[in-house]
Amino acid sequence: MNHSNPSTPPVTSFWRSKPGIALGMLLVIGLFYLAREHYGHIYPLLPYLILLLCPLMHLFGHHHGRH
Questions:
Q1: What contacts 24+ positions apart, CB below 8 Å, involve 5-13?
Q2: What is the dihedral of CA 52, 58, 61, 62, to 10 degrees?
Q3: What's the burial of 11, exposed, middle or buried (CB within 10 Å: 0-12/13-18/19+)?
Q4: I need a labelling partner for 55 at 20 to 30 A (CA). Which of 2, 14, 48, 62 fits?
């Protein structure tokens, strides 16, 4: 039996709301400018950051049928 109230709207994630999307865009822009200003410090670490992306994509990228 489903006892949920049909009159209540579904709960959406903050990051999928308009303020969440705007905040995410501002964070990406801020990180871009921060990376541009400190490129000389980040450049030697770039190969390690790329290698770190592999396990992170495996952890967060696979949904296996979940929607």
A1: none
A2: 180
A3: exposed
A4: 14
Confirm if 15 and 21 have CB atoms less than 8 A apart: yes
Residue type, 56: L
pLDDT tens figures, 17-57: 999 999 999 999 999 999 899 888 888 988 998 899 888 88
pLDDT reported for residue 63: 65
The percent of residues in the chain predicted with pLDDT above 90, rounded, is 36
Alpha helices in the chain, H assignment, sequence order: 18-37, 39-42, 46-61
Take residue 8 and report the two structure tokens written for it. 């209540």
